[in-house]
C-alpha cells in the first residue's frame, strides 16, 4: 500500500499578524528615541593645548556630554532603533543587556523612555556609581561573580522572561550607521573642517565592543580619506593579540582594569581588517595620562580616555621625530567623576600595585623634549 501522503497545503496562503495596537506602540517608541536625538546637541571637539612650535594639533571628541554621560549614549540609541525596527522589542517585555556598566546606564535611559523594563547583567566588581546610575534610570542590576558569565546569564534571563537580549558585543557594529547620519566620525570630520589640518593624520579609538573603531574606520575608508585609524588596547585584553595574529579565538584569563575597554575575548563587533594599527598601553600609563589631562583641560576623564590619549601622544612624538605636521584626534569617552574612588585614588592604585610615576615622568619629559621614550 502506498504511504499515506500529508494533505497538501494550498498553494496560496496569507498569514496576517498585523497588530494595530503593537504598530501604534512601535511608532511611538521609535518616535521617542528619534526625539531624544533631535533634542540633543552635538558633542564638542576640544582642542588640547600642545607646545606651539610642534605644529601639531590634538583634539578630544568629548563624548561625556551626552545625556547619559558617555559615548554609549550613541550606541544605546542605535541598538534600540535597530531592535525596535527589527521587531525584537515588544511592549511590556524586558530588555536585557550584558555590560561592563556604561552601556547599561544609557540603555536603562532609553528603556525608561519607551516604557519597557530593563535588566543589566554585570560583573559584581562594577563601580557603585554605575550601578546607582542604572537604578536611577529605573533599571535593575543582575550581578554575576565571573565577568565571563555575563553573556550566558543574559541569554538565560531573556529566555526566562520572554525579553530581548540586546547583545551589544554582537550588534554594535551593525546597528550604527557607519556611512553617515551624524555618526561620531562624520561629526569629527565636520568639526575639523575649519582647522589648519582638517584631515587628521590619525584617529585613535579604544575598544570595548569595537563598534566605535569600526564606525570610524569604515567611515574613513568610505569617504576615501588618508587618515590612519589606530586602536589603543589596555592590559589583559584579547583585541590586540587577536588583531596581531589574525586569530579571532584569542582569549585572556583576566579581566581589564580599564572600565569600558579591553575584553577577554575578541568581540564580534570588532572589525580587525578595517583598523590600520594597534597599540598596547600599560594601565599605569593610561592612569598617568588622565592626571596630565586633568591639568591640561581642567577636567577629569575616565581611564579609557587616558589609554587613547597615551597612544595619541606616542603618535605625536613619532610625527615630531619625522618632522611631520598635522592633527590627531582621540575620544573623551566618559567623565572622571565616576572613578574618584578608583583611578583618582592613590590608595586604590597602591592596593593594586599600580605605579604611575615612571609614566608621569615620561609625560613630563615629553612636554619638554617631544619624545615619549
Ligand atoms: C564602551 C567604551 C569604550 C569603547 O567603545 P566601543 O565602541 O564599545 O568599542 C571606551 N570607553 C568607555 C568608557 C566605554 O564605555
> In percent, how much strand structure appears in the residues?
5-15%
Helix content: 40-55%
Taking pLDDT < 50 over at least 5 consecutive residues as the criterion, the unreliable ranges are none
Bound molecules: pyridoxal-5'-phosphate
Q: Which term fits the overall shape?
A: globular
| Count of DSSP strands | 10
Q: Helix/strand-derived class?
A: alpha/beta
Spatial order of strands in the largest sheet: 1-2-10-7-8-9
Tally the structural domains: 2
Listing every helix as H and every strand as E from the N terminus to the C terminus, the arrangement reads HEEHEHEHEHEHHEHEHEHHEHH
* CA gyration radius, whole angstroms: 23 Å
What's the level 1 CATH class of the largest domain? Answer: Alpha Beta
Largest β-sheet summary: 6 strands, mixed
Number of helices: 13
Cofactor: pyridoxal 5'-phosphate
Keywords: Cytoplasm, Lyase, Pyridoxal phosphate
Protein name: L-cysteine desulfhydrase Cds1
Organism: Streptantibioticus parmotrematis
Summary tags:
six-stranded mixed beta sheet, binds pyridoxal-5'-phosphate, 373 residues, Rossmann fold, 13% strand, four-stranded parallel beta sheet, alpha/beta, globular
Q: How would you describe this structure to a colleague?
A:
This protein has 373 residues and is an alpha/beta fold. It folds into two domains: 41-66 and 182-264 and 271-360, Rossmann fold (3-Layer(aba) Sandwich), CATH 3.40.50.1100; 72-172, Rossmann fold (3-Layer(aba) Sandwich). Helix content is 42%, strand content 13%. It has 13 helices and ten strands. It has helices at residues 20-39, 72-85, 102-114, 128-136, 150-161, 168-175, 184-191, 211-222, 238-245, 283-297, 303-321, 346-351, 357-369; strands spanning 45-48, 56-62, 95-98, 118-123, 140-144, 164-165, 202-206, 228-233, 277-280, 326-332. Helix 2 (72-85) crosses helix 3 (102-114). The model has no long low-confidence stretch (mean pLDDT 96). The protein binds pyridoxal-5'-phosphate (PLP). It catalyses: L-cysteine + H2O = hydrogen sulfide + pyruvate + NH4(+) + H(+). This is L-cysteine desulfhydrase Cds1. Belongs to the cysteine synthase/cystathionine beta-synthase family. Cds1 subfamily. InterPro entries: Cds1 (IPR047586), Cys_Synth/Cystath_Beta-Synth (IPR050214), TrpB-like_PALP (IPR001926), TrpB-like_PALP_sf (IPR036052).
Amino acid at each position: 500500500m502506498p504511504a499515506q501522503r500529508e494533505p497538501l497545503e494550498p498553494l496560496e496562503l496569507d498569514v496576517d499578524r498585523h497588530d494595530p495596537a503593537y504598530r501604534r506602540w512601535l511608532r511611538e517608541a521609535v518616535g521617542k528615541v528619534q526625539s531624544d536625538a533631535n533634542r540633543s546637541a552635538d558633542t564638542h571637539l576640544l582642542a588640547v593645548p600642545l607646545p606651539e612650535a610642534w605644529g601639531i594639533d590634538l583634539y578630544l571628541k568629548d563624548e561625556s556630554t551626552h545625556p547619559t554621560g558617555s559615548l554609549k549614549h550613541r550606541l544605546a540609541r542605535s541598538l534600540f532603533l535597530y531592535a525596535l525596527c527589527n521587531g525584537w522589542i515588544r511592549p511590556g517585555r524586558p530588555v536585557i543587556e550584558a555590560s561592563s556598566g556604561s552601556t547599561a546606564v544609557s540603555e536603562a535611559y532609553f528603556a525608561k523612555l519607551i516604557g519597557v523594563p530593563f535588566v543589566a547583567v554585570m560583573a559584581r566588581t562594577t563601580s557603585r556609581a554605575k550601578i546607582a546610575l542604572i537604578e536611577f534610570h529605573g533599571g535593575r542590576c543582575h550581578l554575576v561573580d565571573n565577568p565571563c558569565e555575563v553573556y550566558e546569564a543574559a541569554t538565560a534571563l531573556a529566555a526566562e522572561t520572554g525579553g530581548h537580549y540586546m547583545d551589544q558585543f554582537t550588534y554594535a557594529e551593525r546597528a550604527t550607521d557607519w556611512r553617515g547620519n551624524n555618526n561620531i566620525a562624520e561629526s569629527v570630520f565636520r568639526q575639523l573642517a575649519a582647522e589648519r589640518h582638517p584631515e587628521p593624520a590619525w584617529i585613535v579609538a579604544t575598544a570595548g565592543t569595537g563598534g566605535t573603531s569600526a564606525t570610524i574606520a569604515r567611515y574613513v575608508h568610505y569617504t576615501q580619506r588618508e587618515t590612519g585609524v589606530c586602536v589603543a588596547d589596555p592590559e589583559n585584553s584579547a583585541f590586540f593579540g587577536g588583531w596581531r595574529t589574525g586569530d579571532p579565538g584569542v582569549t585572556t584569563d583576566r579581566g581589564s582594569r580599564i572600565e569600558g575597554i579591553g575584553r577577554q575575548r575578541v568581540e564580534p563587533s570588532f572589525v580587525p581588517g578595517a583598523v590600520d594599527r594597534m597599540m598596547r598601553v600599560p594601565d599605569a600609563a593610561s592612569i598617568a595620562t588622565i592626571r596630565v589631562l586633568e591639568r591640561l583641560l581642567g577636567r577629569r576623564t575616565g581611564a579609557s580616555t587616558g589609554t587613547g590619549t597615551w597612544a595619541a601622544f606616542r603618535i605625536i612624538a613619532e610625527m615630531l621625530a619625522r618632522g611631520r605636521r598635522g592633527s590627531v584626534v582621540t575620544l573623551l569617552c566618559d567623565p572622571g567623576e565616576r572613578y574618584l574612588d578608583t583611578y583618582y585614588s592613590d590608595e586604590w592604585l597602591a592596593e593594586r600595585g599600580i605605579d604611575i610615576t615612571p609614566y608621569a615622568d615620561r609625560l613630563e619629559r615629553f612636554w619638554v623634549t617631544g619624545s615619549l621614550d
